[in-house]
Fold:
Amino acid sequence: MTHRPAVFAALLGLTRAGSAIGDFWVQSDFCARVKGASDEHPVTFTDTVTVTVTEEKSTHGTASGRAACLHHCLTYVATQAIVVGLGARALGIRLHPVAAATALAVSFGTHYAADRRVLGKGLLEKVADKTGKGGFYRLADFGINGVLTELI
Structure:
């Protein structure tokens, strides 16, 4: 493929597919629930989804929240790399290794900043407030967008 718009569109589609798979299929329930935990706002996790459901409860603070977010972002970017790599190969698109690594590093960093939503301290919250988007950031309708604004 030599047409830049077509290559861009194909890579964008593959990247978005990898993002969706990484966020909704690969991310564990533990990471999804604990990645925003802090010592000031700990998260209690109850195991209800593993094969051997134990209903064991555990409480997690800042260190666990950072580790969960790091683990999620690593699997998220790895999923993107696999999907884009396989898709590009199937479509005959040659990827420049440095450009691909740079794109994945940016994806990792921005995704970590977006997902590490610590009440009052998160980077995304600060950016949203400074740009007048704080209300949208806190929007939590339908349970999918927005920050957790109260403890469950």
Notes: The mean pLDDT is 86. The longest strand covers residues 43-46. The longest helix spans residues 62-91. Strands lie at 43-46, 57-60.
